[in-house]
Amino acid sequence: MGVTSVQINYWRKSMDILYKKIQQMKQRPAMYMGRKSLHLLQAYLNGYIAYHNEVHDEPNYFFLPELQEYVQQRYNLHTTHSWASLITFFSGSDEDAVDIFYKLLDEFFSENP
Fold first, then answer.
1. Boundaries of every domain in the chain
2. How far is CA 15 from CA 33, 45, 58, 93, in A?
């Protein structure tokens, strides 16, 4: 059985909700995370997804598994380390990693409309 158009529309709507939240966080990271930190951003997103999956019948991981693959390809790595850990490693600091994350996220969405 394939994916239905209802499932695709649900996925896109959910993706839009998470994407908008991430963009809001970009404007005021300290308000959402206490300080500018990619690991705190990742923890927030994981909590958001966990809550979403608790209150909805179908689990949804939004675009984060695809983002994980994209980041691994971008850095030419195949690893079990999270996208946040990889970006932070190559950025030099957790704070700088946030800026790199948003750059990679923009690239990811421009390549995967």
1. 63-113
2. 21, 12, 14, 28
CA distance 19 to 39: 17
Whole-angstrom Cα distance, residue 8 to residue 102? Answer: 25
Q: Specify the pTM.
A: 0.79
Q: In whole angstroms, how far apart are CA 51 and each of 55, 56, 70, 77? A: 6, 9, 25, 30
Q: Are 34 and 83 within 8 A, CB to CB? A: no
Looking at residue 96, its pLDDT comes to 96
pLDDT in tens, 56-83: 877 676 788 889 999 999 999 999 999 9
Q: What angle do CA 10, 82, 88 make, to 5 degrees?
A: 120
Residue 8 confidence (pLDDT)? 47
Rounded to the nearest 5 degrees, what angle is found at the Cα of 105, between the Cα atoms of 102 and 109? 145
Instruction: Look up residue 76 and give its two tokens.
Output: 């030419």
Task: Give me the pLDDT at residue 53, please.
Answer: 83
What would the two tokens of residue 56 be?
A: 């909805």
